[in-house]
Amino acid sequence: xxxxxxxxxxxxxxxxxxxxxxxxxxxxxxxxxxxxxxxxxxxxxxxxxxxxxxxxxxxxxxxxxxxxxxxxxxxxxxxxxxxxxxxxxxxxxxxxxxxxxxxxxxxxxxxxxxxxxxxxxxxxxxxxxxxxxxxxxxxxxxxxxxxxxxxxxxxxxxxxxxxxxxxxxxxxxxxxxxxxxxxxxxxxxxxxxxxxxxxxxxxxxxxxxxxxxxxxxxxxxxxxxxxxxxxxxxxxxxxxxxxxxxxxxxxxxxxxxxxxxxxxxxxxxxxxxxxxxxxxxxxxxxxxxxxxxxxxxxxxxxxxxxxxxxxxxxxxxxxxxxxxxxxxxxxxxxxxxxxxxxxxxxxxxxxxxxxxxxxxxxxxxxxxxxxxxxxxxxxxxxxxxxxxxxxxxxxxxxxxxxxxxxxxxxxxxxxxxxxxxxxxxxxxxxxxxxxxxxxxxxxxxxx
Length: 447
Hints:
By secondary structure, the protein is of the alpha/beta class. It folds into two domains: 3-209 and 384-446, Glycogen Phosphorylase B (Rossmann fold, 3-Layer(aba) Sandwich); 218-378, Rossmann fold. It is built from 19 helices and 13 strands. The chain has helices at 12-27, 41-46, 57-69, 78-87, 90-100, 119-128, 141-151, 155-166, 175-179, 224-230, 251-258, 292-296, 308-317, 330-339, 353-363, 366-378, 384-395, 405-410, 430-446, and strands spanning 3-7, 31-36, 50-53, 109-114, 132-136, 184-187, 204-206, 237-240, 266-269, 284-287, 301-304, 321-324, 343-346. A seven-stranded parallel beta sheet has the order 3-2-1-4-5-6-7, with helices on both faces. Strands 10-9-8-11-12-13 form a six-stranded parallel beta sheet, sandwiched between helices. Helix 6 links the parallel strand 4 (109-114) and strand 5. Helix 11 (251-258) packs across helix 15 (353-363). The chain is globular, with a radius of gyration of 22 Å. The relative contact order is 0.12. Residues 13-128 form the Glycosyltransferase family 28 N-terminal domain. GO terms for molecular function: hexosyltransferase activity; UDP-glycosyltransferase activity.
């Protein structure tokens, strides 16, 4: 059995899938250690998995508050640069590298890490010549790192080479190539969940959504107060903006007011009470947290922000989506769900009470629920965790899982990301170019 070391950062959507993966691998007899933020300690240790924190509670609170201020706009980079200067600088990366490295001394060590944020894992894998499984959370992430590289060309490579010099690694010529250097890349979504808007990496294994089977008879994780509401007829609506407050302005106000006159209870899950309207209708019940995946097994509809974790939960439980999306991968997820006929999607400029109310009435019809249930049943049994187990066990002493140094200095090195250069070799699809232009227009209109 192998020594599995898992590294990830950010919020629930970037951490919970790795906990599920670690739990499964632990049951297969592997030794598992997860490196992530301190707030996940209790959840990870509950699964009898070794846990190491990147931060203290005070550091994590600062991180989370600063992340909330960070703009995802392609037209404004100041907040992002301030965030990177504080949380992604060379000293922080060295600290994480030194923290991770002692847990990787066993010859049978295999690293599993989230792409882009897990710099320490990428460095340790190269330095110690260990197998690395580089994980992408959603189909937009590869396009995202290409855009990020284009916006920061020169700066990123300089930063990385300063970091590499600190641990006696040779310099690289392309940050994007360095990010793509792991030979084994895994995408945590199924093959059928894809869009022709995006360019995809041909060498990526798509293993499926990392979700465990649900058994309504054993939902002990649902508190009794919440369970009583979930068991009501007609089935309730759930409203969730995810684990952060990076959502459409007035997300909760619009969603709650649109649900005022529905003939059923509404469950709102958010820690950000300041985002709620001053008056809460009598049919609306607010919780700081709900076990979303388990709760969706009882719901009639979910109104959400479009995060890939919520998307996968709702698809697997056969619940229609109403997506109010505004940044990162969420608009893409919204458009894909609408195209598949599993729900509706509104970008910021179309997100208003009237549109949301009309959509709710449409999505609560019997035909939508039946279509979502049929889709869920047709796509069960994807064996995501077994797919990951096979990849992990194949990685032991396998050179095909090492970091590809040649790729760092050859692939992409001649790409010109200056969009004003007509001879630029950036290969964005026409649909992606259209999508980015529309996003810029929306952001300018919202100022």
